[in-house]
Automatic annotation (TrEMBL):
Taxonomy of the source species: Eukaryota, Viridiplantae, Streptophyta, Embryophyta, Tracheophyta
GO biological process, one term: response to other organism
Domain Disease resistance protein winged helix: from-to ranges: 449-505
Organism: Eragrostis curvula (weeping love grass)
Protein name: AAA+ ATPase domain-containing protein
Residues in Disease resistance R13L4/SHOC-2-like LRR domain copies: 570-935
Annotated keywords: ATP-binding, Coiled coil, Leucine-rich repeat, Nucleotide-binding, Plant defense, Repeat
Length: 1070
């Protein structure tokens, strides 16, 4: 689906070129008509850029563009049918023998009806285009020659401002003293004791940040959320993006996920509410509700569970609507001002400057820069987008003046809320990037990796060679990110991207005549679908709105993209046959089985994604869908088999079987040589077919980039694994090898030896970046991971995940000199007892440089549930892990950390130790800033951590000494059993800013007695102290002014409610 006229014309032209190569028009006897169509498109092509611009404000041009688009869409349908019919007849005539000659004259003679019908439709279409060409002359379009309407400028080297992974990117959005002043004002307001919102019955103070879209509300909220004082004051922080499309279940799940740092899978709102209540009960919570459009989400979903948070909890709301802030009961409404000129200039420079030389040169352009900024109106988003545009240009006066004098600044007729700077950046894009950007706006939440697959399916990614379309699509995303029109989602990481609401609104305005975004339950959705034809329909789900009637959609006969995230109600007779122009179908939340029977009637379909646990089948004749490129069956747990005819889908590039019950593939799967991505390909041996193995089908698939294999325990003999030919696949960057389970403890030695041999034969090529091995039950890891037998060094490996290694006693020793390895995660390896020097020394690779030591780029190491691990050998003379920043040790028997860690891991910032039961002391880690120790029952002392700033201690009953932690400011003590009777003595010697204690009621009562107990001298010098128990009781203390507050009843325990500034007890009633 292409809403950008120039992109649509380019797509049609590309189709014609491909048909010419395949001699399709000659085969059908319509060469003359095809030639005329191509000529008319060329005649119109030079005027399309100007027409696309003028249609935004000129309704007559808009109507003309609509007529031309209709004609082009019909052209794509006709050309598709031509290609389909020619391909079918070619295969039939050649009888599966590619050496046979195909007689095109004989084909036309045998298919006169089809050839005549296609010729008639093309003549009719050409006649329509004649009229469109004539009418174009009345508009006086400015014609551009070739690609003169835009320029693809090679960007200068990117700066940290466009890093996809670094949190620095967010900081570069913050400039000037004003945002720091605003941050401090709101932080002080939120960290003061007392205060509630004016909403009756609401014990949580609510503060709102209001302003127009793109003004910087979210940036300010993030600055507050990440402020040290907020982190010190509130043990529990939660950030929720409450967009217009957010559902009740999504909001609750996200709150639970953040609160307990694990995934929530409850499908029901009630269950999620109860879970959230149990997690946050009596904890001080700092809750951010970003991008609120309505108070309904708060009143109907979030207010009740968050009312169980401890008094003093806070809610920060960002919204464009003052009415939402008032309805939330905000005690204070903060309005964000537009940026001043100097702050705007600082922000622009941060987007544009890449080198020290740039910093000098940009000052010579300051006068022009100020004029450009004057047109941005002080809106931070507009400045960032313009900065992204200027980043693509040479830094000189000519280029900047072209931006300043661009007529897009003065274009009229756009709604007030749409920013001209965004339009200017959009207009500067080449047609294909314009279309890809607009396409991203069709989705309610985020853009991610399959977006590239959708672009490919819609023909938006073009290349003279189809082998590298995924790489080109990734490059498109990079270019849009460089221009700040999209940005990485730092919470999700990976290939996830988000689009700002203002940019999304602009894109939807551009596509307004062809796209409908709606939610089921909207009262007028039926009327809108009945009164206008759309090319794109995207329907989100709103909780409690029930099911959407499928027959409402069947009136949209021109629909080309259907995206639904809501339950559907199907009636007898409902089908897909009336939506025959569909190219993309995404159905999430409805049982697709009821429509599967006539799926093959969608002859133009390229992209099919089904997500529903009840969906159990695809149609047996799916092989008729010759254009299908993408199939995702994620989460279709009842799907047990693939149709045999799937092997006819020669254009298939993507197949996702994750979460299905499919355990085999049809014979002939090897013919799908266009496949680039396969997830959860099942390994299966058919004993009834002479030992045929599904892995044989992978051999010819040489274009694979991303491959996941599962069920490898089924492969026997191991020689069958060689037929997958992984070592010859030179394009794979992501490989996942898995057994379906480790088969329990009763596995035989023969089975272990067999799986070892199978994995040995699955040696990948050296191009691998990401490697995952799951549920492996061999006693040794594959030879190609061990230095003594390694045949293919994994020179490009960046990420290694080993999960559920039930019987492996040794870690791979061939990893330490890999130059690109950044992350190692090992989860559940209960047979490993020691990690020896072989892990850090690769003696069998003397040719490799050891100047940087072992693991030269390792940034993160996770060793999780190595239950018997008791020795880690790493001497000081062995250089290793020079850039390691994060280390996680979870459930092992180590008695000490190796001396080499402290001596060489000088970049280590974050250290997490959980259930390291036999660890006695922790010392001499000079660079560690954050330390979390929990359930280390024999740990007696922590010493000489001079950079430590934040420390969490949970259930470490023997820990009595804490020395050499001069920078420690934040300490959290947790006593899960409530058995600790007193605070540790070392507290009196610490220079803390904030202490949080989770303890039993006995200790809490002692603290609440203030200076009547020995506990008082341990914590009275600390500026802020918070203590609470699991049964709702709490104690809060501040040093200046001195104030002690508790909710423990003095009538029951004789505890004073307050202590005055002079330290005298002041007993008051509740």
């Amino acid at each position: 689906m292409a809403v950008v006229l120039d992109a649509l014309a380019s797509f049609v032209k590309h189709m014609l070129t491909e048909m010419a190569k395949a001699e399709v028009s000659m085969l059908l006897g319509v060469s003359r008509e095809i030639g005329e169509l191509e000529g008319k498109l060329l005649e119109l092509k030079d005027a399309l850029a100007d027409a696309d611009r003028r249609r935004i404000t000129d309704k007559l041009v808009q109507r003309w563009v609509g007529v031309l688009k209709d004609a082009m869409y019909e052209a794509t349908d006709i050309l598709d049918l031509c290609k389909l019919k020619a391909e079918e007849r070619r295969e039939s005539a050649m009888g599966g023998d590619p050496s046979r000659r195909f007689n095109s004259i004989l084909f036309c003679m045998r298919n006169p009806v089809f050839a005549h019908d296609i010729g008639r439709r093309l003549k009719k279409l050409n006649k329509r285009l004649d009229g469109i060409c004539r009418s174009s002359q009345t508009f006086g379009f400015v014609r551009t020659v070739g690609d003169q309407g835009w320029r693809e400028v090679r960007p200068r080297p990117p700066t940290a401002a466009v890093s996809k992974t670094s949190p620095v990117m967010e900081r570069l959005s913050l400039v000037g003293a004003k945002i720091e002043e605003d941050t401090m004002t709101l932080v002080d307001m939120m960290t003061k004791e007392g205060g509630t919102s004016r909403a009756e019955g609401n014990t949580m103070m609510v503060i709102a940040i209001a302003g127009i879209g793109g003004i910087g509300k979210t940036a300010l909220a993030r600055n507050i959320y990440n402020h040290q004082a907020i982190g010190d004051k509130f043990p529990q922080r939660i950030w929720l993006s409450v967009t217009q499309n957010a559902t009740e279940t999504e909001l609750l799940r996200e709150a639970i996920d953040q609160a307990r740092e694990e995934h929530c899978c409850h499908p029901h709102v009630t269950s999620n509410c109860l879970t959230l209540v149990n997690i946050i009960r009596d904890k001080k919570v700092f809750l951010v509700l970003d991008d609120m459009w309505s108070v309904a989400e708060w009143n109907n979903v979030l207010k009740a569970p968050f009312s169980y948070a401890a008094p003093g909890s806070r809610v920060l709301v960002t919204t464009r609507l003052d009415g939402v802030a008032r309805a939330m009961g905000a005690g204070y409404l903060h309005r964000i001002d537009f940026l001043g000129l100097q702050d705007a200039w600082s922000l622009l420079k941060k987007q544009v400057v890449a080198t020290e030389r740039d910093m000098i040169e940009i000052e010579t352009l300051k006068h022009i820069g100020f004029e450009i900024l004057g047109r941005c109106g002080g809106l931070p988003l507009a400045i960032k987008v313009i900065g992204g545009l200027l980043r693509q240009r040479d830094m000189n006066i000519v280029e900047w003046e072209r931006v300043l004098n661009n007529p897009a600044w003065s274009i009229g007729g756009m709604p007030d809320e749409l920013n001209h700077a965004i339009y200017l950046s959009y207009d500067d894009l080449p047609p294909h990037l314009k279309q890809c950007l607009v396409y991203c706006s069709f989705f309610p939440i985020r853009c991610h990796d399959p977006m590239v697959q959708m672009w490919i399916g819609e023909g938006l990614v073009s290349s003279s060679c189809s082998d590298n379309l995924e790489e080109i699509g990734a490059d498109y995303i990079e270019k849009l990110t460089l221009r700040n029109l999209m940005e990485p989602n730092q919470e999700l990481g990976g290939q996830h991207y988000v689009m700002h609401d203002v940019v999304r609104s602009f894109c939807l305005y551009i596509a307004r005549d062809e796209v409908l975004l709606a939610e089921d339950g909207e009262t007028d959705i039926g009327n809108r679908l009945g009164s206008q034809e759309f090319r794109v329909l995207s329907i989100g789900h709103k909780a409690g709105s029930g099911e959407l009637e499928w027959n409402v959609l069947q009136k949209q006969r021109s629909l080309r993209t259907l995206i639904t995230f809501c339950p559907m109600k199907f009636n007898p007779g409902d089908s897909l046959s009336r939506l025959s122009s569909l190219r993309t179908v995404i159905i999430d939340g409805a049982d697709f089985s009821k429509l599967a029977g006539n799926l093959s009637q969608l002859k133009h379909l390229r992209y099919l994604s089904i997500t529903n646990p009840e969906t159990s089948r695809l149609p047996e004749d799916i092989g008729k869908m010759r254009f299908l490129q993408h199939i995702s069956l994620f989460g279709c747990v009842k799907m047990a088999r693939l149709p045999r005819s799937i092997v006819k889908l020669k254009q298939l590039r993507y197949l996702n079987l994750i979460g299905t019950s499919i355990n085999s593939v049809p014979r002939g799967f090897a013919e799908l040589t266009n496949l680039r991505i396969i997830s959860d390909f099942p390994a299966h041996v058919d004993a009834d077919s002479n030992g045929w193995c599904t892995l044989e089908e992978l051999g010819p698939l040489s274009q694979l980039r991303n491959l996941g294999l599962t069920g490898l325990e089924n492969v026997h003999p191991s020689s069958l694994a060689t037929k997958a030919m992984l070592c010859s696949k030179r394009h794979i960057v992501n490989l996942r090898l898995a057994c379906r389970s480790s088969l329990g403890d009763d596995i035989s030695e023969e089975e272990q030896q067999r799986i070892e041999e199978v994995f040995d034969e699955l040696c990948p090529a050296s191009c691998i970046n990401y490697l995952t091995i799951r549920s492996y039950f061999g006693r040794r890891l594959p030879n190609w991971m061990m230095s003594q037998r390694a045949e293919v060094p994994l020179e490009r490996l960046k990420f290694l995940l080993l999960q559920n290694l039930a019987f492996c006693p040794q870690l791979p020793d061939g990893l330490c000199q890999l130059p690109c390895l950044e992350t190692i995660e090992i989860h559940w390896a209960p047979a490993i007892k020691r990690v020896g020097t072989e892990f850090l020394r690769c003696c069998n690779h003397p040719s490799r440089s050891s100047a940087l030591g072992a693991f030269p780029r390792l940034n993160k190491l996770v060793m999780d549930r190595l239950l018997l691990w008791e020795a880690w050998e790493w001497e000081e003379q062995v250089e290793a892990m020079p850039v390691l920043e994060e280390l996680v040790l979870h459930t092992c028997r180590l008695t000490q950390l190796p001396s080499g860690l402290a001596f060489h891991a000088r970049a280590l910032k974050i250290l997490t130790l959980h259930e390291v039961h036999r660890l006695v002391s922790l010392e001499n880690l000079p660079s560690v800033v954050e330390l979390d120790v929990s359930c280390c029952h024999e740990l007696k002392g922590i010493a000489n951590l001079p950079s430590l700033h934040r420390l969490v201690i949970s259930c470490c009953p023997e820990l009595q000494a804490l020395d050499g932690v001069l920078e420690l400011r934040r300490l959290i003590l947790r006593d899960g059993r409530g058995s600790v009777a007193m605070l540790p003595d070392y507290l009196a010697d610490l220079n803390l800013a904030h202490l949080t204690v989770c303890c039993g009621l006995g200790l809490l009562c002692s603290m609440a007695l203030g200076n009547n107990t020995p506990e008082w001298d341990k914590f009275c010098h600390i500026p802020r102290v918070e203590a609470f128990s699991k049964n709702k009781f709490r104690v809060s203390y501040t040093r200046d002014p001195r104030y002690l507050d508790t909710n423990i009843s003095p009538l029951l325990y004789g505890i004073p409610r307050f202590i005055s500034d002079d330290g005298k007890l002041d007993v008051r009633s509740m």
